[in-house]
Write a structure and sequence with these properties.
Elements (H helix, E strand, L loop, with lengths): L1 E3 L2 H4 L3 H13 L6 E4 L5 E9 L8 E3 L3 E9 L1 E7 L6 E6 L4 E4 L6 E6 L3 E4 L4 E6 L6 E10 L3
Antiparallel strand pairs: 1-10, 2-3, 3-12, 4-8, 5-10, 5-12, 6-9, 6-11, 7-8
Length: 149
């Protein structure tokens, strides 16, 4: 997992740099939906939602993709933890590349504000969309980078 707002220091993968450049250039005006930069190998989902209580959010992992979760506007808490001690809530869905877990384990909370991003790898269990005290409207881009072919 990488949490930062300094791309030069942390970005070594060309795909991460490509995704961040696209988000920074087009994110503010992007409509909700998916933009393919390299087919299924690199795409970005633009989302808008209101954050919610931590207990109402879901822990998740992905097997085939790295996530770059970039907050364009608003703020949210993303909690990150390990799979150790977690129980699956729903089995792995290969079509959506996601496994959901029970919510009872507290991990590390990361407060992401506009311009911040976190890179989560398949071993990083993460719970996005949590509010920081009160609900907040968020516009976010989630870049998906394929790591298995």
């Amino acid at each position: 997992m990488i949490f930062c707002n300094n791309t030069a220091k942390f970005c070594n993968l060309k795909e991460i740099e490509t995704a961040l450049e696209y988000i920074r250039a087009h994110g503010a005006s992007a409509e909700t939906g998916k933009v393919e930069l390299d087919g299924k190998a690199l795409y970005i989902s633009f989302q808008s939602y209101d954050t919610k209580a931590w207990e109402d959010c879901k822990y998740e992992t992905h097997e085939n993709y790295i996530d770059v979760q970039y907050v364009i506007s608003g703020e949210e808490i993303i909690t990150v933890t390990t799979r150790e001690g977690l129980s699956e809530r729903a089995p792995y869905n290969p079509e959506k590349d996601v496994t959901f877990y029970e919510n009872d384990k507290r991990g590390v909370d990361l407060l992401l504000k506009a311009g911040d991003f976190v890179v989560v790898f398949p071993d990083d269990v993460h719970k996005p969309k949590a509010m920081n005290g009160k609900p907040c409207a968020v516009k976010k881009a989630v870049a998906k980078i394929l790591i298995k072919k």
